[in-house]
Amino acid sequence: MFDKNVSKAITKEAKRLKVEEEVLKAVVFVESGGRAFATVNSKQMPLIRWEGHYFYRHLPGNLRNE
Length: 66
Fold this sequence. Notes:
- The chain has about 70 residues and is α+β, with helices and mostly antiparallel strands.
- The chain contains 3 helices and 2 strands, in the order ααββα.
- It has helices spanning about 5-15, 20-30, 50-55, and strands spanning about 35-40, 45.
- Strands 1-2 form a two-stranded antiparallel sheet.
- Strand 1 and strand 2 (about 45) form a beta hairpin.
- Helix 1 crosses helix 2.
- The longest helix is centred in the N-terminal third of the chain and has 14 residues, at about 5-15.
């Protein structure tokens, strides 16, 4: 599901947050699709999941397609 480094980071964070590791892994998997990075122009870049509905609300009125 996750590579070794991501699994270790999740384990560490679960301990810090005092939550079950498997629960945190499930949340991370749902939110990230199991991938933390993508290759862009031959570089590993962190994935950013845009939430269109959130950004849409912050657009000035003249840029919205209402």
